[in-house]
Each structure stands twice: as structure tokens, then as C-alpha cells.
Amino acid sequence: AGDIFLSVENLRGSDHPDDLRGDAGANILEGGAGNDWLTGRDGDDTLRGGAGTDNLVGGAGADLLDGGEGLDRAVYSDATSGLRIDLLNPATNTGIAAGDIFVSVEALRASAHADEVWGDNGNNTLDGGTGDDLIYGRAGNDWLLGRAGDDLIDGMEGNDILLGGPGADQFVGGPGIDRVHYGDSAIGLLADLLDPSRNTGIAVGDGYSGIENLQGSQGNDTLWGDEGDNMILGARGEDAIYGRGGNDFLIGLDGDDTLYGMAGDDTLEGGAGADSFVYEAGNGIDRVKDFQPGLDILRIDPALASVAGMDALTLIATYGHATAAGATFDFGGGDVLIIRNVADPMDLLGDISIG
Questions:
Q1: pTM exceeds 0.85
Q2: What's the pLDDT band for 11 if we cut at 50, 70, 90?
Q3: Residue 231: exposed, middle, or buried by beta-carbon count in 10 A (0-12, 13-18, 19+)?
Q4: Does the CA dihedral 222-247-298-233 come out positive or negative?
Q5: Is 225 helix (H, G, I), strand (E, B) or coil?
Q6: What confidence score (pLDDT) does residue 274 get?
């Protein structure tokens, strides 16, 4: 504190978190170890993050942004207009990113305008900022964030996680197992992979192509899979999760959740809270991973076989078996419910609801 620089073009940081800022000239800023912020301002600057998780803000000019070790991000949030940023082909950059070169940069933060953001073939975190953005992950297992605005978010190759934010977003998974994630929303919503016209909350207007997995908000959600094999996670709140067709993995996580496997051979995991597992006629072979006797509930469809009119004790005596897989209910016709962490069906006597 108190130092004054005259005719100094370059700065070298410490082994601790540093905030280094250049001037209007051509500067060399070296962060060293630590999680650093390097800001070049105007001029053709060289920013070297070194070790640590660094943020590199080149500003105007043709800048060399070298992240070094760690997960490093090039930041363009101060741009006054939209731009194209491409980690793999920076020669196509536009706006204040024109002329920039990326070395060991894994993440991008774009502007508050309409941007086009491209990753490379590694694992990237691409943040479009606000505005109507086009975000493309390329290969690698990427995190793609659209934030506010009507965004197109395309994971391309790899197993990607796509977050849209407010606005009518179009999610494209591409090859790989891809997840749309609404965890940034504190307010509950309805999201339906098969019929997104039913969506509510920040999912209104969203569309899905090549998306296998879905994760809800921090509120009370209603989440629907499609006819394929889905993994659907409820996050916080009291969620209702429907698998539809396919062999699905439904996870309630926190809260008192209700899980419906529906068609296909599904795996259901309630997580924390008092959860309800619904088994209906035509559900196939479903497995409950984490049933908590005395807290969770099995809701059995009376349309199954001759279940109508039975009480829990009669249902257990008629259909229940202790097997190596866990407490098993074989209703015939391929309808089988297995409670994997409970050995004896009689241990579920107080936890079965019919109807």
C-alpha cells in the first residue's frame, strides 16, 4: 500500500492471491502461485496466471492469456457489445477478444450481451453471462451456463451439464450423457423432457434435444423423464419425480419426495427426508435403494393383480418374499418390486399404503 509506479510496464505477484492491473500500455502480468486476478486493460498484454485458479481479464488489445496450472478463466464481462470467443480457434474471435490467444485456459466468462462462446476438446466451464447467447462445448465433459436470456446451449461431444437460467433456452445434448440442471433457481418448477410445453418457472419456453438427465431446483419440483433411460434428481424441496419409459434412476435427494418409476426397470433412491415410492401396474422390475422403515412409505397400486381390498399384512403374505436381493414383492406379469436394503418384507408392515 502506498507504492507509486512510474514507467513500470510489468508486474509479478506473490505466492498468495493477488490482484494485478496493468495500464494502457503493453504489460506483462505474472500472478505466481495463489488464485489471482490479472487485468491487462488496454494494450497488447501478456497475462500469466501461474499456479492456482486464476481469472485473466485481457481487456482491449490482442492479449496472450496463459492460465498456467489450475482451472483458469478468461473473463470478458466488461465488454460493451457482444462477441465471439473460441478457445480452440481464437483466430475467429471478435470484439475485444479479437487477437487474443489462449494457453492453458479451461473456462470462459462472456459479456452481458449476445455472445457466441466455444470451448475446446477438454473439460470446459463456459459462462455466457446475460444476453441471448450461443454456447457450444465441443468435446470434453463441460459445464455450460446460459444465465438470463434466450440461449442455445449445445454440449456437443462428452457428458455435459447445461444450466440455462431465466429465459427460453434450447438445450442440445449431442453424443454422451447430458444433464439439464435447474439448481440455480430457488423457486420450484415443472420440467418435462418429453413435453416441455408443460414447463413452469424458469423452465418455461425451454426445449430439449438429446438430453438424458434432469436436475431440479432448490424448491418443490415436478420432474418428468421421457421414454429413454433417464437419471432425474430432485435436489432440495419436496419433489415429485416421474420416470416414464426406459430404465430410469430417480433420486430425490433432500426433502420429502415422491418417486414414480413408471414403465421400465427403474432404480429409486429417496435420499434424506420422508419419501414415498409409488409402484403401479406395468412398472416392471423396480428397485428401491434406501428405504427407511418407519419413515418412508411404499404406495402400492390396487390395480396390481388382486391387491384391491387387501391390507398390508395380506399383501406381504401373498406377494412378499425374502430374497438375496432384498425384500421382494412379485405381483406376476413381470411386475416386481425389490426393497434392496430391507431383508424381510414383514419389516415393512407399517410402511405400506394401498391405494
A1: yes
A2: confident
A3: middle
A4: negative
A5: coil
A6: 98
